[in-house]
Design a protein that fits this description.
- The protein is globular.
- The protein starts with a strand and ends with a helix.
- The chain has helices spanning 11-20, 46-51, 115-118, 125-136, 151-163, 184-196, 237-240, 281-299, 337-353; strands at 2-7, 29-35, 39-41, 60-62, 69-73, 76-80, 85-88, 93-95, 98-101, 105-107, 143-147, 168-172, 199-202, 207-211, 214-217, 220-223, 226-229, 233-235, 259-260, 263-268, 315-320, 324-329, 332-336.
- The chain has 355 residues and is of the alpha/beta class.
- This is NAD(P)/FAD-dependent oxidoreductase.
Length: 355
């Protein structure tokens, strides 16, 4: 029996499972999925979990069930490429014939002193729960600093505002304007929402140090009661420890078939893969579609195509609380209630397609 091992139950490997199960998996192939939790977590919704506007159950989807699918829960210690084996923290060894690495990312602190010790995170469901508990326990008029004004920071700030009207929220943005790489109309809409809802956007910021109850922005010190870090990501440690060629943010270089160049039976999907686009759930799913096609061709002994289709993303959707949103789709900007309904619809469809 040929062994396909999937590392991580994120968006990429969920799409792999969706395309192979229940009826497209060859009879001589079995799958082992390794993840720290017994369910798929919808990372794009962790901001709402941390803010307290969605429950834990709202951001979970069960893994599929199949007689040739085995779920292993635990922490991965090391990926042995030469041994074709995954080493678990509990001492378990899991061998593979084909491997898909989809372990995602963790926060990157850019060597800012104290950032890893004194900030909260929304990178995993477990850390998002801890962030929720910390924010829920703050007294009235407490100050929350959110470092990083990308999509995660924006959505967390807006959702937290709707959850806790009594909090003072400061969103620190390194750029001169919100979402500076996108049309100014989009930036203006988001900034106006923050202005109307008393979220303080601190532009051109540079957080140089974090201490308990204190943020250093350039030469200024800002008292805070809690800080959430959303200012950059990097692949998880087991992937970084592979010592493979990587891009400027540590993502592993892959070939056109999403394989490691020196290991044709090892694929990298999602936040760990070096691609010209920014990491996203949509990108991971598009990669997974191609990985499944390559796997099927290799299992049949077929020659791979000389080139793979170019991955084209549709854009992105963002929320500003439960009633407003923003989107950038096919070079067009959509704002307001329609954009929020679009995001809710996409989320509903995702849950429906994944059971």
């Amino acid at each position: 029996m040929r062994k396909l091992v999937l590392l991580g139950g994120g968006y990429g490997n969920m799409r792999v499972l969706l395309r192979l199960l229940p009826s497209s998996l060859p009879q001589d192939v079995e799958i082992t999925l390794i993840d720290r939790t017994p369910f798929h977590s919808m990372k794009t919704e962790f901001y709402a979990l941390a803010a307290g506007t969605e429950s834990d159950q709202d951001v979970r989807v069960d893994f599929p069930e199949h007689e040739r699918l085995k779920i292993v829960n635990g922490e991965i210690l090391e990926i042995g490429l030469e041994e074709q084996c995954v080493f678990m923290e509990n001492g378990q060894r899991i061998e593979y014939d084909d491997l898909v690495i989809g372990l995602g990312c963790e926060d990157k602190y850019h060597s800012v002193p104290g950032a890893d010790q004194y900030t909260f995170s929304i990178q995993t469901i477990g850390k998002s729960r801890q962030t929720y508990q910390a924010l829920l326990g703050l007294p009235a008029n407490a100050v929350v600093g959110i470092v990083g004004a990308g999509l995660s920071g924006i959505e967390l700030a807006s959702e937290l505002r709707e959850s806790r009207e009594d909090l003072q929220i400061k969103l620190f943005d390194r750029s001169p304007r919100i979402l500076r790489d996108f049309p100014e109309r989009l930036s203006n809409f988001v900034k106006k929402w923050f202005d109307n809802h008393n979220v303080d956007v601190v532009s051109n910021s540079n957080i140089t140090k974090v201490e308990p109850k204190l943020l250093y922005n350039h030469e200024d010190t800002i008292p805070v009661d809690a800080v959430v870090w959303t200012a950059g990501i990097q692949p998880v440690k087991p992937v970084r420890d592979l010592g493979l060629e990587s891009d400027s943010i540590g993502r592993v270089v892959i070939n056109q078939y999403h394989q490691l160049p020196s290991y044709e039976n090892v694929y990298v999907v999602g936040d760990c893969a070096a691609l010209p686009m920014a990491p996203s759930a949509q990108l991971a799913e598009e990669q997974a579609e191609q990985i499944v096609k390559v796997l099927k061709m290799r299992w049949k002994g077929e020659e791979l195509p000389e080139t793979m289709p170019e991955i084209k993303l549709k854009g992105f959707l963002g929320s500003l609380g439960k009633k407003q949103g923003f989107a950038y789709l096919a070079d067009r900007t959509v704002t307001g209630r329609i954009a929020r309904l679009m995001k809710s619809g996409v989320l509903w469809m995702y849950k429906w397609h994944n059971g």
